[in-house]
Design goal:
With about 1400 residues, the chain is of the alpha+beta class. Helix content is about 45%, strand content about 15%.
Amino acid sequence: MAFQTPGHALPGAFLNTPAVASRFNNAQQDPVRRLLFPPSSTSASSTGQPTRPVPDGLAASGPTSFRSSATASHAAGGEASLRSLHTPAPPEPPLARAAAFVNDALIRDESYPELDNYCRQLSSDYDLTDGDSAWAPFQQTHHFQIPQSVFEQYDRAEVATTMGLFAELNHAWVAIDNCLYLWDYTHPNPELIGYEDGQHSISVVKLVAPKPGVFNSIISHILVVATSHEIVLLGLATQQTPTGSKSIELYGTKMSLPVRGDPNIVVGSASGRIFFTNRLDNDIYELCYQQEEKWFTGRTEKKNRTNSGWVAMMPKPAPFWSAATSEHIVDLVVDDSRNLLYSLSNQSTVRTYNMEASDSLTKVIEKTKNDFLRDITHMMNSQSPLLSGERMKIVSISPVSATEDNKVHLMALTSTGCRLFMSATSASSYMLSVPGRAPQSMQLQSIKFPPAEADQRRARADPFNGPGESVSIRSEVLVESRRGIRFPPGYFFDFVQKPGRPDVDALFISAPHSGRINLSGRSASQKFFEQANWLEINARAEDIGLVTKPFAATNHPVGFGNELAVQFDSPSGSEFAILTNTGVHIIRRRRLIDIFASVIRSTAGEEGLKGEVNTFTGAYGRVETITAALAVACRQGDPGRFSVGHSAIDQPTLDRAKQVFINFGGSPGLPEQDGQSAMIETVRPSPRHSAITLYLSRLIRSLWKSKVISISSNSAGVFVVNSTVSPAKLREVQDGVIALKRFLNDNRSFIQGLSGPSDLRQAATKQEELALQGEHQAMHAMEVLMTDIAEGISFVTTLFEERVTDIYTRLDETSQQGLRDLTYERLFSQAPGKQLAKVLVKAIVNRNIENGSNVETVADALRRKCGSFCSADDVVIFKAQEQLKRASEPSLNSNVSRTLLHDSLKHFEKVASSLSQANLESAIQQYIQLRYYAGAIQLCLTVAEAKDRGKLALYWVNDGKPARDPRAAAFEQRKICYDLIHRVLLDLDAASSREPEMIDNKPTLIATKRAEAYDVVSHSTDEVFHVDLYDWYIQQGWTERLLGIESPYLTTFLRRLASQDVAHAELLCRFYTMRSKYFEAAKVQSDLAQSDFALTIKERLNLLSRAKTNASVLTAGVSRQEQQLLNHDVTELLDVANIQDDLLERLKSDTRIPAERQSEIQNALDGKIQPLSDLFNSYADQAGYYDLCLIIYHVADFRNPTTIAQTWTNLIEQTHNDILERQAAFVERQAQGAAPGDFPPQPYEALVTQIEGICHRSSKDSFIFPVPSLMPDLCRYAFEQGQDGRIGADVHWPINLFLHLDVSHDLVIRVLESMFEAQAVPFRGAARARLVEWICHAVTLWVRDLGRHGRPEARLEPWVGELMAECDTWASANVRGTNEGGTDPRDLARVVKEVRRSVDGMVVSPAGSRSIGFY
């Protein structure tokens, strides 16, 4: 080891030395390195020693430039946090990403504006087209003739004939006098169903809902038949026919109500209440009915709900001239969503009634014609002739349900074709949706005027009014509107009676333009855009009804009216039936895809197609247009013919739709990066991808959030599991998804993002290449989701084809709850759903096996139908589980069972990568129960390897297990398998402890199994497993078992842990010493002693001492040079550590040190080994520990004689003063009566002890123990301080000290000779006698030593004789002098002569050069 040497000698400072080489240097300044004592300390001056200046580097209380450990840790954490910000997040799995796309699309669809957002103020915005135009929003798809049998009955009519529709049942009816006939108008030759029991002419027929619990469950509707004398209730039962139509059957109920007057309107509520009115009054009556008669009421009862008590009993006066002079009700409608009933009188008065209870009807609002006119005046800036007092007449009303809008309640149609939208609120607040609170005021919200007349329309490309264009308020195109009706979400049918044609209605139909409304969003200037067209029915309309289910995109106002979102839920869209005297006309609301298919079919040329696509884009947006093209290309879209499927699209139309999708689909893009590098995750997919997402989301919207099953009980009370979605709907969705997938696959080479590497070759820049990569990933995610949806539906279909109730009961409680909560979204795209599906597959397979089916046959059938839910690996797993189950049968012998266990293990190993955690744990548990321990361990190892084929866990462990590293996940996957191995080993050890290992000198079965298991463990090549196993051994406290392992991985494991923990480092030392690798053990102990672990200095000394011992033992395979170098390094470290330990002990007991410094010194010195320079400058030198300073000189190889000599002088003086102080203090304590004790030693005794210790610790270093300079100083001290016979000391103690320290007699006598001849102070004059005495004593001991060894040939050199002769001469001449504390001069002269004589006999004549003492 090399050390630095001071550049110059500056006593007491040592700015640069002693400094240990780089291995001891500290790169940072020690915060404790400052003055040990306050500047005012007088400890140095108290001993007579001059105070030394303090070097700049030792100044106390100066500001430090270091960060504390906490600050450093915080900074390190901050840097780590900053690094983590730039660490890219792991890529999202394709399924999860595709599901996110779908959810975003569904959310956008559900954000469609509610009616109140665009139905405001005034509007006359229409896109009016001809009925035969490709853009027409409505079309007549069929006209059903009235059957000839009806005409035959009509020919017998005598009084009156009325007609009507039950459109929801596909039936029409005709009342001819007192007979009622119903028929299925869709049937080519329908059978008439008649009711001919009436006695009076039928005036009104109405189909209403029955009251719950009154009729038999087969009665789905009540048919109300009203005549001028009675109202009869008939039960009506419906049944679905194989062709999809409905058959009906009438039942008598024996319920009838006598009435007076002429009923003209009958309506029913959803709760079963029946209201009716008469032609000649303004009252509303309720027909109350019950199952059985009661004491005071019959089965039917009539109640006047508008005039109660005696007023209702008064007979109504007959009109004197005509019925027109009295007010009567002309329209009556029910809003079941708000429990409201609206009536319209012939005087344009609208009344609102609240059906707050089951037997009451309370009028809450009455709005007269004048009220309407006043609201209109306030809303309009100018007067419209259409809404003047003379012309305005309300002819019909239509309710707007709370589901459709919270604010708008009612639409009223005027005879001039204006629609008045009314909002109603309660009087207490304007809160719009307060459940159970009836409205108390009604205001005009919006007016929708008729479309402008042809000569009033401005020629423009945009069919809609632009911003700032005035509203057309004078159009007469809808005059005279005879009747109008509104269906959700705004389908408006207006039957207009044109002048000169009183028996023919012109039909005006309009609907909200979903595309324009959706594009405008929720802006304040949003307009009420509508599409409209005229249809010729060439007859007078008798009735109109909704054939299909009422429209509802959502069950709340926001998103309710989004027709675009639901256009794939019902291929036929919304259909309406209009009954005229010529038959039933079927009107269909055309979907966007229907219009799109017609437009591109009828467009000529490429430019024409481009223009039409641009028109669609302007009206619907680019994504919506591309979505329509994609849907048509996938054979969606109705050709406009009744009962013709949507797949009947001609090939040219399909080709054009594909062309639009491919050519107008756009390209992916990158957002603004603000100087940051672009990533694939930030790529914005193309509109084409958005169209695919939107189309797929609309295909599956009806089942995406739906649960898969519902739990109920059948009529017998038996537990039943049903499907929440009908099988037909599942097949329809599956067909649509498969068609989409097939289209994308067939046109893969033409669609950007699907063609793969060929797209990248077309990229001109790096950004384009990155965008295409992002597009490809997004497209791939959607394809993966499509596959899983198709197979998921097949799985659900298969599940319900089985006895799903039996399968449900086989599941555990957790799986049952999971199945109850399972949605299609979770099944298609989430891992928990996939796992539950595998559990269900297993249950299906087990059920079929129990029924005698072959596992391979069942599993293969499942795999063909839904491969992602039952893959080829699943089939292998089923086989393995079957073999494992057979192996557990008690009837099998051990050989067959073991063969089955081996086979199951082979099958499990084949599919290790796809083996789920549940299946693995189940298999391991069964292996443990069957005591197949080796197989259980082997399976766990195989699965762990399969889950981390890239060995990411090993790299993570070798890198020190960094935090927030994605590779940690791979280790956790492996750890799950290793924990199972731990469980196996624990069970194996427990089983082994209960049975003997040997019987009759033969190993028992459990001993054999134990050997097999541990053989698998020891021969494993999985390094991560060995690391985890050894960690587990340590946690269990099995260190002896660990040290007994012979494995190449154990050394690496212990070495890695040795750098992390002291106990593990000690374990590594034990590992080496047990294998006689002492050199490696010494290196570990040496490194541990220098480590940053929380070790005390004594613990580090112990480690270094053991390291020195181990380094001194020969180790096979280690060269002597390496061993010597390590030994040298350890020895030097040990010396430094000893010095530091001595300093710590001294400073802990030093009373001069302030209390606040003690803890700092303790923290600095009782820990890591400090550099020698710090030990000297900061502690030893400042504290005046001169003996330790000399030891530091020795260790640092410091050789400045002046500094060393000065340190010795300071040590002698300090030791002498310290002893004197101790003696004085002892005397003072004794004088004060303290307990007796040992008197302190004499100063020379303490000094002798100090010198002997320094000499031994410095190995008698001649530079640290300079006899020629130290001996004169010591002799001078003994003489001057009276450390001789005057205090009872041996006067020869300085000479004896050096001789005792093995200094040669020759050197001692030569030093004394030089002192004698120099006559330096104080050895002048008579004081030279002390030198003569010491010389005689030294020579005497030398002569005696020579004689003791029996060496007759030993001789003294002549200079010794000459010295004795000189001493004899001086002693003889000074016999009268003094020698205080020594021998009397006279006795001294005699002794000198005796010594001279003995010397003379041993002196030889000079020959050659003088030796060092003898020869």
